[in-house]
């Protein structure tokens, strides 16, 4: 059964537990993580916690008890929920205080969490790949922070859905950055290519897993900027995220990627990723 948690209390997901003057609610003043559990094990949990700590530091939220207290909250929650295959959404905000842009004094951060079952990913999407659109990257300059402020991401993903597409590949100044809620990769001449880490993209944990897999399997992996023209001429395209895992992209803006079917390297990476998660 799905469960919720807020500031030390377990609650039902529909319980009215958040004060109106909560800064996450009024300003989006907070950060979050999404962690996938496979068979009761948090996949790359430490990497997620490290990214969360960096996000919180970047917006100057002090975590009382540090990241260890967050690990404890997650681990206890997963045990209580007793769902071996679940996704954990963990959010930290600057707390509840009278609405004012300035940081409130002596107000503790709010920590909330939901834990929900994860069904295996749609076989059809895995086998056939997904369609995506391209969309301008209209986000701010600090996309490495996993901030609650997701308005441009929401608008891009909605634009994709309205064109019956799964995701929006974002581009800025003619270069591909990432997707609205995932990392994007192309394959050119048997080399897996993805945008280098910078303040302009979120350092994806699944991206990190794919990089490790490529290194182990001696698959050429390159981190460099690439253009939308290269995207359209790629031999293969795939996207990654905690919830989408490794997913082939077979159509972009209604144009086929190569033959319009998942590529060989993508299929291999899907298998190797599955093995890494213990599935
Ligand atoms: C903008 C963005 N990029 C990339 C990702 C993928 O990150 P991860 O692999 O850690 O889920 C996400 C995940 O939510 C995201 O929102």
From TrEMBL:
Domain of life: Bacteria
GO aspect biological process, one term: carboxylic acid biosynthetic process
Recorded GO MF terms: D-alanine-2-oxoglutarate aminotransferase activity; pyridoxal phosphate binding
Gene Ontology CC annotations of this record: cytosol
Catalytic reactions on record: D-alanine + 2-oxoglutarate = D-glutamate + pyruvate
EC number assigned by the record: 2.6.1.21
InterPro entries associated with the record: Aminotrans_IV, Aminotransferase-like, BCAT-like_C, BCAT-like_N, Class-IV_PLP-Dep_Aminotrnsfr, D_amino_transT
Keywords: Aminotransferase, Pyridoxal phosphate, Transferase
Keyword flag Acyltransferase: no
Cofactor: pyridoxal 5'-phosphate
Keyword field contains Transferase: yes
Oligomer status and interactors: Homodimer.
Family statement: Belongs to the class-IV pyridoxal-phosphate-dependent aminotransferase family.
Official protein name in the record: D-alanine aminotransferase
Species in which this protein is naturally found: Alteribacter keqinensis
